[in-house]
Amino acid sequence: MPDQWEKNLACATDCRTCGSKLDNNDQRILSVYTHEPICMNCKREEEKNADYSDQSKAMMSQCLKDTGKPYGDPEGYCFHHFCPYKC
Ligand SMILES: [Zn+2]
After folding, report:
1. Rounded distance from Cα 44 to ligand 1 centre (Å)
2. Are 53 and 60 in contact (CB under 8 A)?
């Protein structure tokens, strides 16, 4: 994984789902469905989906394959599907 994704994701200026503005100091988190940065409200909505936990598991194994890092490693992007972060 190149470093570029990190910049693109970390410093997104709006939520990719609802389009609300994200300031540098606003927390954002990655969608397990699209891997795009979304706001915390959208994350709460996402978590209500019936297939959310299945999708999370699928994402984690894909992520492990792609990055070679366990999802709990803050260096890997998988981490940010569960841990909010700022720009
Ligand atoms: Zn949103």
Report:
1. 9
2. no
Q: Ligand 1 being an ion, which residues bring their Cβ within 5 A of it?
A: 15, 17-18, 39, 42
Q: What is the pTM of this model?
A: 0.82
Lookup: tokens for 35: 């891997």
In tens digits, the chain (87 residues) has pLDDT values of 445 666 667 788 999 999 999 998 899 999 999 989 999 999 999 999 999 999 999 998 888 888 888 777 777 778 888 889 888
Handedness of CA 44, 53, 30, 69 (dihedral sign): positive
